[in-house]
Design goal:
It is found in: Membrane. Its main location: membrane. This is Vesicle transport through interaction with t-SNAREs-like protein 1B. GO terms for molecular function: SNAP receptor activity; SNARE binding. The chain is mainly alpha-helical and 112 residues long. It has one domain. The chain is 98% helix and 0% strand. It contains 1 helix and no strands. The radius of gyration is 47 Å and the shape is rod-shaped.
């Protein structure tokens, strides 16, 4: 009978060890699935970050180009403003000169 108890205890221990081994294997399988899923998600994130980086670099280049074009536009607007002011001064000078000539003609015509 003592041999039977020993065999029963051994069998119970082996069954517990086997159950523990199965739980460990299942846990490892879940961990491996989680690791694979995490790796897939990480690859997607890296891919998306790469695309965002390219978008940001493209935007930066466009902003640099826009800044350069704005600088050229400012220079052009300053030149145009200077030309407009110069034309206004010339026009005012011509108007004043015409008024003086008209006044001189009127003076000469009505004084004789």
């Amino acid at each position: 009978m003592s041999g039977f108890i020993w065999e029963d205890e051994t069998r119970h221990a082996v069954l517990e060890g086997h159950a523990t081994l199965e739980r460990t294997a299942e846990s490892l399988a879940r961990s491996q699935r989680t690791a694979v899923e995490t790796e897939r998600i990480a690859e997607e994130v890296v891919s998306e970050l790469g695309a965002q980086r390219e978008t940001l670099l493209h935007s930066k280049r466009r902003l640099t180009d826009t800044d350069h074009e704005l600088s050229q536009t400012r220079v052009l607007l300053r030149k145009m403003t200077l030309h407009v002011l110069t034309n206004k001064i010339i026009l005012i000078f011509i108007i004043v000169l015409e008024i003086c000539i008209l006044a001189g003609v009127c003076y000469i015509k009505f004084s004789h």
